[in-house]
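Ticket #4471: structure output looks truncated?

Reporter: J.K.
Steps to reproduce: submitted the chain below (164 residues) through the standard prediction queue, then opened the result file.
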Amino acid sequence: MQITVQLPDDLAQRPDAARAALEAFVIEGYRSGALSHAQAGALLGLSRFEFDGFLKERQIFEHAYDVEDLERDWAVVLKDLEERRRVYTGWLRECQEAAGLSIEPSSDQGHYPFQWKVGSADGRVMGYVIFHGADVAGSREEKRNRLCGLLLDVVTKAGPKASR
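Returned output as attached by the reporter:
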C-alpha cells in the first residue's frame, strides 16, 4: 500500500522530507502502541537492534526493553531448556545402549545444560553424556543418533568392568 501525504512547501523543501515524515509517523505509532516494535522497525527497514538504536538516538525510551521484559524472556528460555532436557532424556533412555543402565540428568549442570549421569546396574557411575554445541544442531533423528553415539562412547570407555 502506498500513502500520499501533502506537506507544506516549507517542510517539503527540507532534505529527505519523505523519510522525516515516515519516521515521525512510525515514532508516534510506536509511542501510542498502534505499532509493535517489529512493525515499526519493518516500516523503517530496520532490524530489531537497529530500531532500538534509532529510538535511543532520538531519546525515545517509552516501551524500552526493561527488567520485566528480561525476566519474561528468561522464563521462556528456562521453560524451553527444561522441555529439551526432558525430550533428550527420553531419547537417551530409548537408545539400545541404555538397556540396564540408569540415565539421569546431572544435578551439576555446570557449563553444559544437557548432561546426564550414566550408572550401571550395581549403582556405579560409568560416566557422563554431555550434549552441547554442534551436537544440538540438526534434525531430530540426527540428534537422537548423536545422543545414542555419545552414550555408546560412555559405555565403551567404562569397559567390561562396568556391570550392567
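Triage note (M.O.): checked the attachment and the full C-alpha cell line is present. The beta strands are 102-105, 115-119, 125-130.
Status: closed, working as intended.
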